[in-house]
Amino acid sequence: MGMFLMPSLGADMDEGTLLEWMVAPGDEVKKGQVVAVIDTAKSAIDVEVFESGVVAELMIEPGTLVPVGTPLARIEAQGAGKAAAEPAAEPELAAEPKPVPEPVPMPAAEPELAAEPKPAAEPVPADPLPHLAPPIRHLMHQFGLKPGDVRGSGPGGQITRKDVLAAAGESGGITVAAPVSNIAPPPAPPSRPRVTPRARRLAQQRGVDLSALQAKGPVTGADVESFTPKAKTPVDRSAAMRKATAALMSRAAREIPHYYVVNTFDITDTLAWLREFNAGRKPRDRVLPAVLFLRATVLAAQAVPEMNGTWKDEFVASAGVDLGVAVATRSGGLVTPRIMDAQKLDLGGLMAQLTDLVKRAKAGRLKASELQPGSITVSSLADNGPDLLYGVIYPPQVALVGVGGVGPRPFVVDGELAVRTTATVTVSADHRATDGRTGARFLTAFGKALTHPEEL
Amino acid sequence: MNDTQARELVLNALADVAPEIDTATFDPDTSLRDGAELDSMDFLAYVSGVSEVLDIDVPEDDYSRLDTVNSAVAYVVEKAGA
Prior knowledge:
Number of strands of chain A: 21
Oligomer: heterodimer
Largest sheet of chain B: none
Strand content of chain A: 15-25%
Largest sheet of chain A: 7 strands, mixed
Distance between the termini of chain A: 47 Å
Distance between the termini of chain B: 10 Å
CATH topology of chain B: Non-ribosomal Peptide Synthetase Peptidyl Carrier Protein, Chain A
Radius of gyration of chain B: 11 Å
Number of domains of chain B: 1
Shape of chain B: globular
Largest interface: A-B, 24 and 17 residues
Protein backbone atom coordinates (compact mmCIF):
# COMPACT_ATOMS: atom_id res chain seq x y z
CA MET A 1 0.00 0.00 0.00
CA GLY A 2 1.25 3.46 -0.74
CA MET A 3 0.36 7.04 -0.22
CA PHE A 4 0.05 9.28 -3.21
CA LEU A 5 1.56 12.55 -2.00
CA MET A 6 1.41 16.12 -3.23
CA PRO A 7 4.49 16.06 -5.47
CA SER A 8 7.11 18.78 -5.73
CA LEU A 9 6.94 19.86 -9.35
CA GLY A 10 10.19 21.69 -9.59
CA ALA A 11 12.58 23.16 -7.05
CA ASP A 12 10.45 26.26 -6.65
CA MET A 13 7.22 24.61 -5.50
CA ASP A 14 6.23 24.15 -1.87
CA GLU A 15 2.46 23.86 -2.11
CA GLY A 16 -0.18 23.05 -4.68
CA THR A 17 -3.93 22.95 -5.16
CA LEU A 18 -5.65 19.71 -6.06
CA LEU A 19 -7.82 20.73 -9.01
CA GLU A 20 -9.38 17.51 -10.12
CA TRP A 21 -9.30 13.78 -9.52
CA MET A 22 -9.11 11.70 -12.70
CA VAL A 23 -9.83 8.49 -10.79
CA ALA A 24 -12.37 7.31 -8.21
CA PRO A 25 -12.06 4.94 -5.25
CA GLY A 26 -12.00 1.35 -6.49
CA ASP A 27 -10.36 2.25 -9.81
CA GLU A 28 -7.35 0.28 -10.90
CA VAL A 29 -4.40 2.48 -11.79
CA LYS A 30 -1.27 1.68 -13.75
CA LYS A 31 2.18 3.12 -13.17
CA GLY A 32 2.48 6.30 -15.22
CA GLN A 33 -1.28 6.91 -15.41
CA VAL A 34 -2.47 10.48 -14.87
CA VAL A 35 -4.53 10.39 -11.69
CA ALA A 36 -4.90 14.02 -10.69
CA VAL A 37 -4.56 17.57 -11.93
CA ILE A 38 -2.55 19.81 -9.61
CA ASP A 39 -2.52 23.59 -9.82
CA THR A 40 0.85 25.08 -9.01
CA ALA A 41 1.84 28.71 -9.05
CA LYS A 42 2.80 28.17 -12.67
CA SER A 43 0.11 26.08 -14.31
CA ALA A 44 -2.21 23.11 -14.06
CA ILE A 45 -0.18 19.90 -14.18
CA ASP A 46 -1.26 16.36 -14.98
CA VAL A 47 0.24 14.19 -12.27
CA GLU A 48 1.08 10.54 -12.86
CA VAL A 49 1.11 7.78 -10.27
CA PHE A 50 4.36 5.86 -9.79
CA GLU A 51 3.01 2.47 -8.80
CA SER A 52 0.20 0.28 -10.01
CA GLY A 53 -2.64 -0.66 -7.71
CA VAL A 54 -6.17 0.19 -6.71
CA VAL A 55 -7.33 3.59 -5.47
CA ALA A 56 -8.51 2.91 -1.92
CA GLU A 57 -9.32 6.41 -0.82
CA LEU A 58 -9.19 9.99 -2.08
CA MET A 59 -8.12 12.02 0.92
CA ILE A 60 -8.22 15.55 -0.38
CA GLU A 61 -11.12 17.44 -1.93
CA PRO A 62 -10.64 19.23 -5.23
CA GLY A 63 -9.98 22.89 -4.50
CA THR A 64 -7.76 22.32 -1.46
CA LEU A 65 -4.35 23.96 -1.21
CA VAL A 66 -1.88 21.69 0.60
CA PRO A 67 1.89 21.65 1.18
CA VAL A 68 4.18 19.38 -0.80
CA GLY A 69 4.30 15.93 0.81
CA THR A 70 0.68 15.90 2.01
CA PRO A 71 -0.98 12.52 1.34
CA LEU A 72 -3.62 12.97 -1.37
CA ALA A 73 -4.80 9.41 -1.85
CA ARG A 74 -4.22 5.89 -0.62
CA ILE A 75 -3.34 3.35 -3.29
CA GLU A 76 -3.34 -0.33 -2.40
CA ALA A 77 -1.41 -3.01 -4.20
CA GLN A 78 -3.66 -5.21 -6.26
CA GLY A 79 -5.23 -8.10 -4.41
CA ALA A 80 -4.90 -6.37 -1.06
CA GLY A 81 -8.66 -6.15 -0.76
CA LYS A 82 -10.55 -3.28 -2.24
CA ALA A 83 -11.59 -0.67 0.22
CA ALA A 84 -14.92 0.90 -0.49
CA ALA A 85 -15.18 4.65 -0.79
CA GLU A 86 -14.54 6.01 2.65
CA PRO A 87 -15.71 9.26 4.13
CA ALA A 88 -13.42 12.25 3.81
CA ALA A 89 -10.17 11.87 5.69
CA GLU A 90 -9.92 13.46 9.09
CA PRO A 91 -7.54 16.39 9.16
CA GLU A 92 -5.32 14.46 11.60
CA LEU A 93 -5.00 11.68 9.06
CA ALA A 94 -4.11 14.02 6.28
CA ALA A 95 -1.32 15.44 8.41
CA GLU A 96 0.62 12.13 8.38
CA PRO A 97 3.40 11.24 7.88
CA LYS A 98 4.93 14.62 8.55
CA PRO A 99 3.13 17.44 10.29
CA VAL A 100 1.74 19.99 7.89
CA PRO A 101 -0.31 23.10 8.42
CA GLU A 102 -4.05 22.68 8.07
CA PRO A 103 -5.17 22.61 4.47
CA VAL A 104 -6.07 26.09 3.35
CA PRO A 105 -9.36 26.33 1.50
CA MET A 106 -9.32 28.41 -1.64
CA PRO A 107 -10.72 31.87 -0.86
CA ALA A 108 -13.06 32.02 -3.82
CA ALA A 109 -13.15 29.04 -6.09
CA GLU A 110 -11.41 29.35 -9.44
CA PRO A 111 -13.58 28.69 -12.46
CA GLU A 112 -11.95 25.29 -12.89
CA LEU A 113 -13.07 24.37 -9.45
CA ALA A 114 -16.59 25.44 -10.18
CA ALA A 115 -17.12 22.36 -12.31
CA GLU A 116 -18.43 19.84 -9.86
CA PRO A 117 -18.22 20.46 -6.15
CA LYS A 118 -19.13 17.30 -4.29
CA PRO A 119 -18.95 15.83 -0.84
CA ALA A 120 -15.76 13.84 -0.43
CA ALA A 121 -17.40 10.46 -0.01
CA GLU A 122 -19.12 10.62 -3.37
CA PRO A 123 -17.03 8.96 -6.09
CA VAL A 124 -15.69 11.39 -8.63
CA PRO A 125 -16.36 10.24 -12.20
CA ALA A 126 -13.23 9.11 -14.01
CA ASP A 127 -11.89 11.57 -16.55
CA PRO A 128 -15.09 13.35 -17.50
CA LEU A 129 -13.67 14.84 -20.70
CA PRO A 130 -11.58 12.04 -22.12
CA HIS A 131 -10.94 13.05 -25.71
CA LEU A 132 -10.99 16.83 -25.67
CA ALA A 133 -8.01 18.93 -26.60
CA PRO A 134 -6.55 20.45 -23.41
CA PRO A 135 -7.39 24.08 -24.38
CA ILE A 136 -11.03 23.12 -25.04
CA ARG A 137 -11.19 21.13 -21.83
CA HIS A 138 -9.75 24.09 -19.96
CA LEU A 139 -12.26 26.47 -21.53
CA MET A 140 -15.15 24.17 -20.59
CA HIS A 141 -13.89 24.07 -17.03
CA GLN A 142 -13.82 27.83 -16.97
CA PHE A 143 -17.46 27.98 -17.88
CA GLY A 144 -18.38 25.07 -15.64
CA LEU A 145 -19.59 23.01 -18.60
CA LYS A 146 -19.73 19.23 -18.93
CA PRO A 147 -19.42 17.35 -22.24
CA GLY A 148 -23.17 16.75 -22.29
CA ASP A 149 -23.78 20.49 -22.17
CA VAL A 150 -21.96 21.16 -25.43
CA ARG A 151 -22.90 19.95 -28.89
CA GLY A 152 -19.83 19.42 -31.08
CA SER A 153 -19.89 20.92 -34.58
CA GLY A 154 -16.37 19.87 -35.57
CA PRO A 155 -15.39 16.82 -37.62
CA GLY A 156 -16.80 13.65 -36.04
CA GLY A 157 -18.82 15.70 -33.56
CA GLN A 158 -15.69 17.15 -31.99
CA ILE A 159 -16.24 20.06 -29.65
CA THR A 160 -14.66 23.29 -30.84
CA ARG A 161 -13.93 26.54 -29.06
CA LYS A 162 -16.95 28.14 -30.73
CA ASP A 163 -19.23 25.37 -29.46
CA VAL A 164 -18.06 25.94 -25.91
CA LEU A 165 -18.56 29.69 -26.13
CA ALA A 166 -22.00 29.19 -27.64
CA ALA A 167 -23.00 26.74 -24.92
CA ALA A 168 -21.66 29.07 -22.24
CA GLY A 169 -23.81 31.84 -23.67
CA GLU A 170 -26.91 29.63 -23.62
CA SER A 171 -26.42 28.46 -20.10
CA GLY A 172 -26.60 32.10 -19.12
CA GLY A 173 -23.76 32.16 -16.69
CA ILE A 174 -21.05 30.53 -14.77
CA THR A 175 -21.43 28.10 -11.96
CA VAL A 176 -20.17 29.46 -8.71
CA ALA A 177 -18.98 27.00 -6.15
CA ALA A 178 -18.71 27.58 -2.47
CA PRO A 179 -15.18 27.29 -1.10
CA VAL A 180 -14.30 23.63 -0.78
CA SER A 181 -12.13 22.07 1.85
CA ASN A 182 -11.78 18.60 3.26
CA ILE A 183 -12.94 19.69 6.67
CA ALA A 184 -15.88 21.82 5.60
CA PRO A 185 -19.37 20.36 5.32
CA PRO A 186 -20.54 19.58 1.78
CA PRO A 187 -20.86 22.84 -0.12
CA ALA A 188 -24.22 24.35 -0.89
CA PRO A 189 -25.59 23.63 -4.36
CA PRO A 190 -24.08 26.07 -6.85
CA SER A 191 -26.08 29.08 -7.88
CA ARG A 192 -26.01 30.42 -11.41
CA PRO A 193 -25.78 34.19 -11.53
CA ARG A 194 -26.59 35.83 -14.82
CA VAL A 195 -23.80 37.54 -16.68
CA THR A 196 -24.28 40.05 -19.47
CA PRO A 197 -22.41 39.37 -22.71
CA ARG A 198 -20.42 42.60 -22.31
CA ALA A 199 -19.40 41.58 -18.80
CA ARG A 200 -18.27 38.20 -20.10
CA ARG A 201 -16.22 39.77 -22.86
CA LEU A 202 -14.65 42.31 -20.52
CA ALA A 203 -13.90 39.63 -17.98
CA GLN A 204 -12.19 37.55 -20.64
CA GLN A 205 -10.12 40.51 -21.85
CA ARG A 206 -9.04 41.50 -18.38
CA GLY A 207 -8.57 38.04 -17.01
CA VAL A 208 -11.17 38.66 -14.33
CA ASP A 209 -12.62 35.57 -12.68
CA LEU A 210 -16.39 36.02 -13.04
CA SER A 211 -17.12 33.66 -10.17
CA ALA A 212 -15.25 36.02 -7.86
CA LEU A 213 -17.61 38.88 -8.67
CA GLN A 214 -20.41 39.51 -6.26
CA ALA A 215 -23.35 41.34 -7.76
CA LYS A 216 -26.92 41.55 -6.49
CA GLY A 217 -28.49 41.28 -9.93
CA PRO A 218 -26.91 40.09 -13.18
CA VAL A 219 -23.17 40.71 -13.43
CA THR A 220 -22.69 43.72 -15.69
CA GLY A 221 -19.76 45.28 -17.49
CA ALA A 222 -19.56 47.92 -14.75
CA ASP A 223 -19.11 45.21 -12.12
CA VAL A 224 -16.19 43.81 -14.08
CA GLU A 225 -14.67 47.25 -14.62
CA SER A 226 -14.83 48.15 -10.94
CA PHE A 227 -13.59 44.77 -9.81
CA THR A 228 -10.26 44.62 -8.02
CA PRO A 229 -9.06 41.05 -7.88
CA LYS A 230 -8.57 39.74 -4.37
CA ALA A 231 -8.99 36.05 -4.86
CA LYS A 232 -6.75 33.67 -6.78
CA THR A 233 -7.62 35.01 -10.23
CA PRO A 234 -5.48 34.64 -13.37
CA VAL A 235 -3.97 38.00 -12.40
CA ASP A 236 -2.89 36.43 -9.13
CA ARG A 237 -1.58 33.44 -11.04
CA SER A 238 1.00 35.54 -12.84
CA ALA A 239 1.93 37.17 -9.54
CA ALA A 240 2.38 33.71 -8.02
CA MET A 241 4.39 32.64 -11.02
CA ARG A 242 6.57 35.72 -10.61
CA LYS A 243 7.10 34.78 -7.00
CA ALA A 244 8.06 31.20 -7.86
CA THR A 245 10.55 32.36 -10.48
CA ALA A 246 11.88 34.95 -8.04
CA ALA A 247 12.51 32.31 -5.38
CA LEU A 248 14.30 29.94 -7.74
CA MET A 249 16.42 32.61 -9.39
CA SER A 250 17.34 34.14 -6.01
CA ARG A 251 18.58 30.72 -4.95
CA ALA A 252 20.60 30.47 -8.17
CA ALA A 253 22.18 33.89 -7.61
CA ARG A 254 22.86 33.10 -3.94
CA GLU A 255 24.33 29.64 -4.39
CA ILE A 256 25.81 29.43 -7.88
CA PRO A 257 29.02 31.27 -8.72
CA HIS A 258 28.35 31.86 -12.41
CA TYR A 259 30.94 32.35 -15.09
CA TYR A 260 30.20 33.01 -18.75
CA VAL A 261 31.79 32.17 -22.08
CA VAL A 262 30.47 33.80 -25.25
CA ASN A 263 30.97 33.28 -28.95
CA THR A 264 29.35 34.49 -32.16
CA PHE A 265 28.73 31.90 -34.87
CA ASP A 266 28.21 32.44 -38.58
CA ILE A 267 25.14 30.33 -39.35
CA THR A 268 24.49 31.59 -42.90
CA ASP A 269 25.35 28.21 -44.44
CA THR A 270 23.54 26.31 -41.69
CA LEU A 271 20.32 28.22 -42.37
CA ALA A 272 20.71 27.63 -46.13
CA TRP A 273 21.10 23.93 -45.35
CA LEU A 274 17.96 24.05 -43.19
CA ARG A 275 15.97 25.69 -45.99
CA GLU A 276 16.99 22.85 -48.26
CA PHE A 277 16.13 20.33 -45.53
CA ASN A 278 12.66 21.88 -45.12
CA ALA A 279 11.92 22.43 -48.81
CA GLY A 280 10.56 18.95 -49.42
CA ARG A 281 8.57 18.83 -46.20
CA LYS A 282 5.03 19.75 -45.29
CA PRO A 283 4.85 22.81 -43.02
CA ARG A 284 4.09 20.68 -39.95
CA ASP A 285 7.21 18.57 -40.53
CA ARG A 286 9.55 21.50 -41.03
CA VAL A 287 12.26 22.17 -38.50
CA LEU A 288 12.64 25.63 -36.95
CA PRO A 289 16.11 27.20 -36.50
CA ALA A 290 15.56 27.04 -32.71
CA VAL A 291 15.88 23.25 -32.95
CA LEU A 292 19.41 23.57 -34.40
CA PHE A 293 20.48 25.18 -31.14
CA LEU A 294 18.81 22.44 -29.11
CA ARG A 295 20.56 19.74 -31.10
CA ALA A 296 23.91 21.53 -30.86
CA THR A 297 23.43 21.72 -27.07
CA VAL A 298 22.76 17.98 -26.88
CA LEU A 299 25.89 17.16 -28.89
CA ALA A 300 28.02 19.54 -26.82
CA ALA A 301 26.61 18.09 -23.58
CA GLN A 302 27.62 14.63 -24.75
CA ALA A 303 31.08 15.81 -25.81
CA VAL A 304 31.64 17.61 -22.48
CA PRO A 305 29.72 15.59 -19.86
CA GLU A 306 31.07 17.78 -17.03
CA MET A 307 28.47 20.37 -18.08
CA ASN A 308 25.54 17.93 -18.19
CA GLY A 309 24.18 17.09 -14.75
CA THR A 310 23.38 18.48 -11.33
CA TRP A 311 25.23 19.87 -8.31
CA LYS A 312 24.41 18.37 -4.89
CA ASP A 313 27.48 19.07 -2.74
CA GLU A 314 29.38 17.60 -5.66
CA PHE A 315 28.75 17.24 -9.36
CA VAL A 316 26.61 14.31 -10.45
CA ALA A 317 26.81 13.62 -14.19
CA SER A 318 23.60 12.72 -15.97
CA ALA A 319 23.51 9.56 -18.07
CA GLY A 320 21.26 11.05 -20.73
CA VAL A 321 20.68 14.62 -21.82
CA ASP A 322 17.45 15.79 -20.21
CA LEU A 323 17.13 19.03 -22.04
CA GLY A 324 15.29 21.84 -20.24
CA VAL A 325 13.66 24.36 -22.55
CA ALA A 326 12.67 27.78 -21.25
CA VAL A 327 9.17 28.58 -22.53
CA ALA A 328 7.39 31.89 -22.06
CA THR A 329 3.72 31.30 -21.31
CA ARG A 330 0.97 33.48 -22.71
CA SER A 331 0.35 35.05 -19.32
CA GLY A 332 3.93 36.31 -19.35
CA GLY A 333 5.47 33.78 -17.00
CA LEU A 334 8.22 31.25 -17.53
CA VAL A 335 8.30 27.46 -17.33
CA THR A 336 11.17 25.12 -18.18
CA PRO A 337 9.86 21.66 -19.00
CA ARG A 338 12.40 19.06 -20.07
CA ILE A 339 12.79 16.76 -23.04
CA MET A 340 13.90 13.41 -21.62
CA ASP A 341 16.82 11.60 -23.27
CA ALA A 342 17.10 14.25 -25.95
CA GLN A 343 20.29 12.55 -27.23
CA LYS A 344 18.09 9.87 -28.76
CA LEU A 345 16.27 12.35 -31.00
CA ASP A 346 17.29 13.69 -34.40
CA LEU A 347 16.26 17.13 -35.65
CA GLY A 348 12.79 15.97 -36.67
CA GLY A 349 12.27 14.14 -33.38
CA LEU A 350 13.43 17.14 -31.36
CA MET A 351 11.15 19.44 -33.36
CA ALA A 352 8.15 17.18 -32.70
CA GLN A 353 8.89 17.03 -28.96
CA LEU A 354 9.45 20.75 -28.75
CA THR A 355 6.20 21.52 -30.58
CA ASP A 356 4.23 19.29 -28.25
CA LEU A 357 5.94 20.61 -25.12
CA VAL A 358 5.55 24.28 -26.02
CA LYS A 359 1.92 23.82 -26.97
CA ARG A 360 1.09 22.17 -23.67
CA ALA A 361 3.25 24.55 -21.66
CA LYS A 362 1.34 27.49 -23.12
CA ALA A 363 -2.00 25.83 -22.46
CA GLY A 364 -0.86 25.02 -18.92
CA ARG A 365 -1.04 21.26 -19.33
CA LEU A 366 2.37 19.81 -18.59
CA LYS A 367 3.01 16.47 -16.95
CA ALA A 368 4.71 16.24 -13.59
CA SER A 369 7.59 14.16 -14.98
CA GLU A 370 8.36 16.93 -17.46
CA LEU A 371 8.78 19.47 -14.68
CA GLN A 372 11.51 17.60 -12.83
CA PRO A 373 14.84 19.37 -13.27
CA GLY A 374 16.66 18.53 -16.49
CA SER A 375 20.42 18.12 -16.83
CA ILE A 376 21.03 21.30 -18.87
CA THR A 377 18.77 24.11 -20.13
CA VAL A 378 18.50 26.18 -23.30
CA SER A 379 17.01 29.65 -23.21
CA SER A 380 16.47 31.28 -26.56
CA LEU A 381 15.41 34.78 -27.49
CA ALA A 382 16.00 34.08 -31.16
CA ASP A 383 12.54 35.37 -32.09
CA ASN A 384 13.05 38.74 -30.46
CA GLY A 385 15.65 41.40 -30.75
CA PRO A 386 18.42 41.04 -28.17
CA ASP A 387 21.88 40.19 -29.48
CA LEU A 388 22.80 38.02 -26.57
CA LEU A 389 21.45 36.57 -23.39
CA TYR A 390 23.35 36.04 -20.13
CA GLY A 391 21.14 33.43 -18.52
CA VAL A 392 20.84 32.37 -14.89
CA ILE A 393 21.38 28.66 -14.26
CA TYR A 394 18.42 26.60 -13.03
CA PRO A 395 19.43 24.93 -9.77
CA PRO A 396 20.55 22.21 -9.37
CA GLN A 397 21.88 22.21 -12.96
CA VAL A 398 25.37 23.48 -13.70
CA ALA A 399 25.00 25.08 -17.13
CA LEU A 400 22.60 27.06 -19.26
CA VAL A 401 22.91 27.91 -22.95
CA GLY A 402 21.59 31.36 -23.88
CA VAL A 403 20.85 31.96 -27.56
CA GLY A 404 20.69 35.53 -28.82
CA GLY A 405 18.82 36.90 -31.81
CA VAL A 406 19.57 35.53 -35.27
CA GLY A 407 20.22 38.27 -37.83
CA PRO A 408 22.62 39.88 -40.33
CA ARG A 409 25.80 41.26 -38.76
CA PRO A 410 29.35 42.17 -39.80
CA PHE A 411 31.57 39.08 -39.66
CA VAL A 412 35.06 38.26 -40.88
CA VAL A 413 35.17 35.49 -43.50
CA ASP A 414 38.53 34.45 -44.98
CA GLY A 415 40.14 37.71 -43.83
CA GLU A 416 37.44 39.87 -45.42
CA LEU A 417 34.63 41.74 -43.72
CA ALA A 418 31.26 40.39 -44.82
CA VAL A 419 27.60 40.63 -43.81
CA ARG A 420 26.58 37.23 -42.51
CA THR A 421 23.66 35.80 -40.54
CA THR A 422 24.99 35.18 -37.06
CA ALA A 423 23.89 34.16 -33.59
CA THR A 424 25.70 34.89 -30.36
CA VAL A 425 25.63 32.06 -27.85
CA THR A 426 26.41 32.47 -24.16
CA VAL A 427 27.16 29.55 -21.90
CA SER A 428 26.50 30.26 -18.22
CA ALA A 429 28.28 27.72 -16.08
CA ASP A 430 28.64 26.87 -12.39
CA HIS A 431 32.19 27.58 -11.24
CA ARG A 432 31.86 25.05 -8.42
CA ALA A 433 31.50 22.29 -11.00
CA THR A 434 33.75 23.46 -13.82
CA ASP A 435 36.33 26.07 -14.79
CA GLY A 436 36.36 28.41 -17.77
CA ARG A 437 38.36 25.93 -19.81
CA THR A 438 35.56 23.39 -19.63
CA GLY A 439 33.01 26.03 -20.57
CA ALA A 440 35.17 26.97 -23.54
CA ARG A 441 35.41 23.32 -24.65
CA PHE A 442 31.63 23.08 -24.44
CA LEU A 443 31.17 26.22 -26.51
CA THR A 444 33.63 24.97 -29.13
CA ALA A 445 31.77 21.66 -29.42
CA PHE A 446 28.52 23.59 -29.67
CA GLY A 447 29.87 25.79 -32.48
CA LYS A 448 31.28 22.83 -34.37
CA ALA A 449 27.89 21.11 -34.32
CA LEU A 450 26.02 24.27 -35.26
CA THR A 451 28.24 25.02 -38.26
CA HIS A 452 28.24 21.42 -39.54
CA PRO A 453 24.52 20.88 -39.89
CA GLU A 454 24.89 17.74 -41.97
CA GLU A 455 26.24 16.11 -38.80
CA LEU A 456 23.33 17.32 -36.69
CA MET B 1 -13.09 29.95 -52.92
CA ASN B 2 -14.40 33.44 -52.22
CA ASP B 3 -13.08 36.09 -49.87
CA THR B 4 -15.53 35.25 -47.06
CA GLN B 5 -14.70 31.55 -47.06
CA ALA B 6 -10.99 32.29 -47.18
CA ARG B 7 -11.32 34.72 -44.27
CA GLU B 8 -13.13 32.15 -42.16
CA LEU B 9 -10.47 29.56 -42.92
CA VAL B 10 -7.63 31.92 -41.99
CA LEU B 11 -9.31 33.09 -38.78
CA ASN B 12 -10.02 29.51 -37.73
CA ALA B 13 -6.38 28.56 -38.25
CA LEU B 14 -5.37 31.59 -36.20
CA ALA B 15 -7.86 30.87 -33.40
CA ASP B 16 -6.49 27.33 -33.06
CA VAL B 17 -3.01 28.68 -32.47
CA ALA B 18 -3.81 31.75 -30.38
CA PRO B 19 -7.06 31.11 -28.49
CA GLU B 20 -6.73 34.43 -26.65
CA ILE B 21 -7.19 36.43 -29.86
CA ASP B 22 -10.77 37.60 -30.40
CA THR B 23 -11.04 36.97 -34.13
CA ALA B 24 -14.23 39.04 -34.35
CA THR B 25 -12.48 42.29 -33.42
CA PHE B 26 -8.91 41.48 -34.50
CA ASP B 27 -7.42 44.06 -36.89
CA PRO B 28 -6.88 42.17 -40.17
CA ASP B 29 -3.88 44.35 -41.05
CA THR B 30 -1.94 43.64 -37.85
CA SER B 31 1.30 41.73 -38.31
CA LEU B 32 0.81 38.38 -36.64
CA ARG B 33 4.47 38.01 -35.77
CA ASP B 34 5.11 41.55 -34.55
CA GLY B 35 1.67 42.87 -33.58
CA ALA B 36 -0.01 39.73 -32.28
CA GLU B 37 3.29 38.35 -30.98
CA LEU B 38 3.04 34.92 -32.50
CA ASP B 39 6.44 33.31 -32.02
CA SER B 40 8.03 31.20 -34.73
CA MET B 41 6.42 28.06 -33.39
CA ASP B 42 2.92 29.58 -33.25
CA PHE B 43 3.39 30.96 -36.73
CA LEU B 44 4.47 27.59 -38.10
CA ALA B 45 1.41 25.94 -36.52
CA TYR B 46 -0.83 28.58 -38.10
CA VAL B 47 0.78 28.12 -41.53
CA SER B 48 0.42 24.35 -41.12
CA GLY B 49 -3.27 24.82 -40.30
CA VAL B 50 -3.93 26.87 -43.43
CA SER B 51 -1.88 24.50 -45.57
CA GLU B 52 -3.61 21.36 -44.31
CA VAL B 53 -7.19 22.63 -44.55
CA LEU B 54 -6.57 23.73 -48.14
CA ASP B 55 -4.33 20.79 -48.94
CA ILE B 56 -1.80 23.09 -50.58
CA ASP B 57 1.91 23.49 -50.06
CA VAL B 58 3.02 26.75 -48.46
CA PRO B 59 6.77 27.08 -49.13
CA GLU B 60 8.87 28.96 -46.57
CA ASP B 61 9.36 31.74 -49.12
CA ASP B 62 5.61 32.44 -48.95
CA TYR B 63 5.45 32.75 -45.14
CA SER B 64 5.62 36.55 -45.27
CA ARG B 65 2.40 36.61 -47.31
CA LEU B 66 0.56 35.05 -44.39
CA ASP B 67 1.71 37.65 -41.88
CA THR B 68 -1.58 39.59 -41.77
CA VAL B 69 -5.11 38.23 -41.97
CA ASN B 70 -5.84 40.34 -45.07
CA SER B 71 -2.71 39.27 -46.94
CA ALA B 72 -3.34 35.65 -45.97
CA VAL B 73 -6.90 35.85 -47.31
CA ALA B 74 -5.57 37.13 -50.64
CA TYR B 75 -2.98 34.34 -50.68
CA VAL B 76 -5.56 31.64 -49.94
CA VAL B 77 -7.95 32.93 -52.62
CA GLU B 78 -5.11 32.94 -55.15
CA LYS B 79 -3.84 29.48 -54.18
CA ALA B 80 -7.23 27.81 -53.92
CA GLY B 81 -8.42 29.30 -57.17
CA ALA B 82 -5.35 28.15 -59.08
